TrEMBL record:
GO terms for biological process: DNA transposition. It comes from Rheinheimera pacifica. GO terms for molecular function: DNA binding; transposase activity. Residues 213-232 are annotated as: Disordered. Residues 223-232 have a biased composition (Basic and acidic residues). Residues 9-124 form the Transposase IS200-like domain. It comes from the Bacteria. This is Putative transposase.
């Protein structure tokens, strides 16, 4: 079966996941993380992609980003992936693939969902049991969005900027988002959307994406329709 093309829309935020092949380690030390960060900055600039949030785990990465044109994210991820594989294979004297096929992604509705994906990404190391607080993990955007650390890579999304007028108040409001219990239903929606490649949002947003792209954004009902035997 042919693979469906990904859905990208200029100006619409997107949640991207890239995993190591067979969940293998992609980052062995801080030098690897730093190299990936450097090239992410280089290629996001080259292809007009704004990076809002990220986390680099040992065997996968999460990004929340917005592109200025429909092809920006694909071009960025392709260039970044190839560059990093060359670096990793040379550094560790290996050959072959590193990534698990194509990256996965989904469009994200700004209202109600963008900040949820910010949080989902940055709390990843806590859910994985690596740290007790997102502030304790060095390779995520939490210190930038929540604590005001300076970064040339991070470009805030308007939904983040709308949290408050001043930087200090905005960072406090952002930290407050992490105090609430994780909504399991929302977690399932985020995971399902990026796995299926379908839009994350309400029915209106999904219909708008479907109309613009010609791609269905609702999961189809499995199995035969009720009453099909009578019709036959």
């Amino acid at each position: 079966m042919a693979r469906l093309p990904r859905v990208h829309l200029a100006g619409v935020p997107e949640h991207v996941i890239q995993r190591g092949n067979n969940r293998q380690v992609c980052f062995a030390n801080d030098e690897d993380f730093a190299a990936y960060t450097h090239w992410l900055k280089e290629y996001s600039d080259a292809f007009g992609v704004h990076i809002h949030a990220w986390v680099f785990m040992t065997n996968h990465v999460h990004l929340l980003c917005t592109a200025s044109d429909d092809s920006g994210i694909s071009l960025m991820m392709q260039s970044l992936g190839r560059q990093y594989v060359r670096y990793f294979n040379q550094r560790y004297k290996r050959s072959g693939t590193l990534w698990e096929g194509r990256f996965k992604s989904c469009l994200v509705q700004e209202e109600h969902y963008v900040l949820a994906v910010y949080r989902y990404i940055e709390i990843n190391p806590v859910r994985a049991g690596m740290v007790s607080s997102p502030s304790s993990y060095a390779w995520s955007s939490y210190a930038i969005n929540a604590l005001g650390k300076q970064s040339a890579l991070c470009q805030p999304h308007p939904c983040y900027l709308a949290l408050a007028d001043s930087e200090a108040e905005r960072q406090q409001a952002y930290r407050d988002l992490f105090k609430a219990e994780v909504n399991e239903a929302l977690l399932c929606d985020i995971r399902s959307a990026v796995k299926s490649g379908m839009a994350l949002g309400n029915d209106r947003f999904k219909q708008e994406v479907a109309d613009l792209t010609g791609r269905r954004q609702q999961m189809g009902q499995r199995g035969r329709p009720e009453g099909w035997r009578k019709q036959v």
